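The authors assume throughout that readers already know how a fold can be written as discrete tokens. Each protein is reduced to its one-letter sequence and a matching series of backbone shape codes. I therefore recommend that a typical entry be quoted early in the introduction. For illustration, here is how one protein appears when written out as sequence plus structure tokens:
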Amino acid sequence: MKNLTASSITSRPPDGLPRSFGLFFADAVLGAAFFLTCFLVLTNAVPLIQWGMIAELKSKMRYARTGQISVLIFTVLLWAVSRRRALYEKLWWPRFLRGLEATPVSGMLLGLWVSYAGTFAYAGVLRHLALETRAFDLGIFTQALWTTLQGDPLYSSLKGGICLLGDHFSPILFLVAPFYSLWPDPRMVLILQAAVMGSSILLIGRFTARRSRDTVIGLVFGLLYFFYRPGRNVLLEDFHPEVLVEPLLFLISFFLLERKKSAFLLTAAGILMAKENMPGVVFGLGLYAILINRWVKTGLAVILFSMALFAVEISLIIPFFSKAPYFYAASYHEPWGYFLSRWFSLETWEYALKLFY
């Protein structure tokens, strides 16, 4: 078959219509199919936001079916236009994608972070101005930050007139206080939380690009986190200090894979500052260090320290500040049994298999 040229396409408009309209129509259909395909893949058939067109679908099954159709349309159209070189080069979407290839991946990851942090900081501020934030937990933490700046560390009248270390052991709040001093307003912690959590995009993108030796792979993983629904939902639930260590959870995973022992231990210490349940996370990382990295002494030390720290926090430290027994004790068994029951239960391993299946 003779290859079509740009002049022959221009001189033979389809069905008597102007060529410009034909290109516009092809661009529109291909673009819509491309958008729906990416939307389906990146959100796992779960709406990113409740747009009007999604509300009309009324069920996830119908939404998924629409996505499946878009995948088919996009695949067929892409194959068809790729067979017509001159037509393919005139379309806007292929040219747009080729332009993205020329853009540095680091710049695109930075753009994703700015977009992510900006969007959810803005959403958090709007929720606050619309009176949708609550005393539990945003009011509790911001009051404790304000009293810290007044010389009464983490005092909260909302929690019965105690230091918040007597409710949850979250000394990471002391690191938030200097930021709060710059702008003592609840909106500051909402903005800070969105910025810190969004920085995970940069960490994931950079590390996966390094491990795979392919910058495009780094961008893909950055996009996957960008569209990760549970992460977005966390930022729409006021403020919680444990969210601030999410980048550290990615970092410590990278340090384990890179076998950087000192960095691993330092990052583990930062994670333990978030909340009294974080020793359970560090316990699992110590187990990984033993089984995968063969750091027997280091991993064993991390496991024993995390278990001991958990026991000390809920038995001694938290009751010392609250002047009462640990309020959330019913959520755990005895400290040693908590770790063993969590890590060696069938429910835990079933959950792990679902994550990696």
Observations:
- Residues 109 and 240 are 25 Å apart (CA to CA).
- Residues 1-18, 48-57 have pLDDT under 50 and may be disordered.
- The two ends are 46 Å apart (CA to CA).
- Residues 296-322 form the longest helix (27 residues).
